[in-house]
Amino acid sequence: MPTIQRGELPQEALLNRYNHEGVYTDCYFVDVRRRIHHAEYVEAFYTTSLFKVERLILSLLASKPSSDVQVKQLVSGEIANFAAWRVEGRAVNQLLLCDFLGRTRSWLMSVCTEEHDSVTTRLYFGTAVVPKGKSISGQVSYGFAFHALSGFHRLYSRMLIRAALSKLSRLHATH
Questions:
Q1: pTM (2 decimals)?
Q2: What gap in Å lies between CA 113 and CA 120, rounded to an integer?
Q3: Going by CATH, does the domain composed of 5-169 fall within 3.40.50?
């Protein structure tokens, strides 16, 4: 299984608009030795068993239900709201979602490269967290929960990409 890495946001990343002073951003990626269309990646990401747990929690705690049918509609551009998110930006190979509170952003991007007879797709997942506010001295504040959950977030980000990659591999094996 390919290695998931943490790296810099690509220059063309829609998430880059948050990559400035005071806004936390991260970027994880994995290289896969085959062509994966962006729509395939987004659908696989949001329909994994792992992400369905998050969707269930959002349904129960925030009254923001969602379905696999809505994921397909999100991918095709038919809807702009999905579970606790709304589409903030979209490009041919990217999707940027904003949570209903306006505090976090989730970003997916896929980039295919061809060299000789080989095709590789780099799958990206990133997050932005907008600070709660600034102190009088100008220091940004994210709050206790952000700091307490940062280790879990890093692990969970990798787990989400791994789950999507596993699902894509299973789907590819059946075709």
A1: 0.92
A2: 5
A3: no
